[in-house]
Amino acid sequence: MKILQIIHKPQNRGAETFTCQLSSHLIAEGHRVKIVSIYDGNATLPGNFKIESLGGKLDAKFFDFAAWKKLNKIVLQYKPDMVQVNAGDSLKYTVFSKFVFRWNRPIVVRNASEVGQYIKSNIQKNINRFFYKNIRHVASVSEASKKDIKQLFPFLEDKISVIPIGLEPIHNIPKIDLGETRNIVHIGGFTFEKNHTGLIRIFENVFEKNGNVKLHLVGDGPLRSEIENLVRSKGLEKNVVFHGFVNNPLSYAASSELLVLPSIIEGLPGVILEAMYCKTPVIAYNVGGVSEVLNESSGYLITKGNEIDFANTINEILKCRPISKIEHAYQLVLNSYMNKEITRKFIKVYKTVVSQ
């Protein structure tokens, strides 16, 4: 098969990284893949793909004729069997291009979050209904994501599969020196979904009971300066470390005593699987598809918004390393969440879509 993958832009984010990893495995299975981005970007993504940009305009909300036309040209020249869209504005641009220029290729949407959490008005819902009316299939990252989009758009009920995110095998993950303190890590972009404000409150509670502890924040994003100001206002500068974007996030997970994820919106966070793979215990809020990998056997699931319970659980882990949970979580990832097997699930969906 020939697959055209559409991404938001070359950036070091989960959706784009996984798209490139999936594409590499598809090529290894004998398929052909081309990756196109809506917007320009300069990040280096896995697989050394030559990513062609549509040159989309960031300020063009609903009309970017030049980019739609360029995508139409790519579709006509490449002649893919199907087009897969992967988060950001990829669905919007792809559907508009198909609708305006009438190219005839099935669209598969990779749904990596909970769409309903972002739709706040009937206008937004109607616009998104138009987009999803023009696709062939949805690959949701979790049962929670599937349930969310099915409730929002019941007409998709027979067009949804659940295919989780996967990981690449890495042997001998190098550790880094984070100092003599007890180290907690959070890996993720500084966006409202990740709830860094709540995380700082949680850490403040932990710090009051355990002064020999540091919180390492790995990632970057639009809210970083706001969180830096919050940390300064609480006098926690020496105990909250901002690392920014790093090329080796697994090393930070492997070098910490636990990973925390108090997100308020999630699909199925790859960072949880990465920490499990590194044999690092995980504490997270019970949102989205988190409970599909994190349970009493594999980690610690906290009711959304219960910051006291979250902080107390951190202190429990710092006192006693949960060996049995760590091993169970590691085996879960090895058996169910590696990219080679995930790719085969995508291929099965592709074959069904193309044959319809």
List descriptors:
12 helices, 2 domains, 356 residues, 13 strands, 41% helix, Rossmann fold, single chain
Proper CATH architecture of the largest domain: 3-Layer(aba) Sandwich
Query: What is the spatial order of strands in the main beta sheet?
Result: 3-2-1-4-5-6-7
Please count the helical segments: 12
As for the CATH topology of the largest domain, it is: Rossmann fold
Globally, the shape reads: globular
Radius of gyration: 21 Å
Percentage beta strand: 15-25%
Pfam families: Glyco_transf_4, Glycos_transf_1
Protein name: Glycosyltransferase
EC number: 2.4.-.-
GO molecular function: glycosyltransferase activity
Topology record:
Elements (H helix, E strand, L loop, with lengths): L1 E6 L6 H15 L3 E6 L14 E2 L11 H14 L3 E5 L3 H12 L5 E5 L10 H12 L3 E4 L2 H10 L7 E3 L19 E6 L8 H14 L3 E6 L5 H10 L6 E5 L4 H6 L3 E4 L8 H8 L4 E4 L14 E3 L4 H13 L3 H14 L2 H17 L1
Parallel strand pairs: 1-2, 1-4, 2-3, 4-5, 5-6, 6-7, 8-9, 8-11, 9-10, 11-12, 12-13
Helix pairs in contact: 1-12, 2-3, 6-10
